[in-house]
Amino acid sequence: MRSWKGWNWGDKIFWGSGLQLQMEQYLQSKVGTGFYSNASEVVRDAIRRMREEDEKLAALRAAVQIGDDQLDRGEGIPYTPERLETITAKALANSRNGKKVNPDPGLLIGS
Predict the structure, then answer these.
(1) Which of 49, 76, 86, 111 has its CA 20 to 30 A from that of 20?
(2) Residues 2-35: pLDDT tens digits?
(3) Domain boundaries, the chain
């Protein structure tokens, strides 16, 4: 049985960190579903999901920075209703033809 700063990672968790009773009950309810064997699996899964979200957020921030840099260099194009219609039509056509829809409409420039 591993412990870390007052946490007992067995089937029963003892909170030395003052974690609220509701959180302990929530963890135990997740274990009770049968999807997780113990509370440590719930915590590991939560941390894995948080890391994935952090990575997605970092990628989004990087994409926004690229766009901001392009706009600063004057590389932007007006986003008009006609432009949106062109992007939408291209995405729908690709979807109907079984092609993967491009999540970056900026790459459709000139197509």
Answers:
(1) 49
(2) 444 445 555 455 555 555 788 888 999 999 999 9
(3) 78-111
